[in-house]
Amino acid sequence: MVGVTVALVLCATVLVLVVTSLTRSAPSWWRSVRATDPATVARAEAIENGLVNVMYEVRPDAAEPWSVGLRAADANAWLNTRLGQWLRNRDERFVWPAQVRNVQVEFDRGLVQVGVEYVSDERPQVISATLRPEFHEDGSLWVRAESVSIGRLPLPADWILGQAESALPDLFASGGIEDPEVRRMLDALAGAGPLATDPRVSLGDGRRVRILSVRASGSTLHLTMQTEFED
Asked: What pLDDT does residue 147 have?
């Protein structure tokens, strides 16, 4: 009995150490991004201007689909230097959560990895989700979370999403993100609804750009789009 007890204690100790190590370590695809680095800022501005130019390009045949690729390194530069301002432009009440200090993505094998560095009690943890973007027959875009992890420890997606939902009022106490938008995002991650029923962007000049397909491979998100004229 003493031997069994000692063995159980040792096993439990090892398990705790392993779990702690997994939750404190970042996923293999995670890369450090310095938001204040001038090179990072310049990269973010360049990719934003480049995408705007591509979107507004005048194409002789408006019915012909066109494609663009977004590299993960470029997306990460933009997310960590421009995302906060973009959200404030959409809603002036928005305040970036103090607990979140890094946002990153990775694209590969048809999957989109999305992660944030969450700081709790001065100890950062990377919380990430694996998404598989899909288009349904009605043209809607779905991005159900296939898995969710804390560090390198996978956990049930439903449980993590439930915890995230309960924490959102504290994270966004300023009310900067409207409840319907948060609900839509959580429903999309849970597979309860589409991320966008009509994935298109109005250009404000009588045209709009519709997203036809999304493919993730080789650390690049490949987007196929089509420019249309608004009704």
From this structure: 86
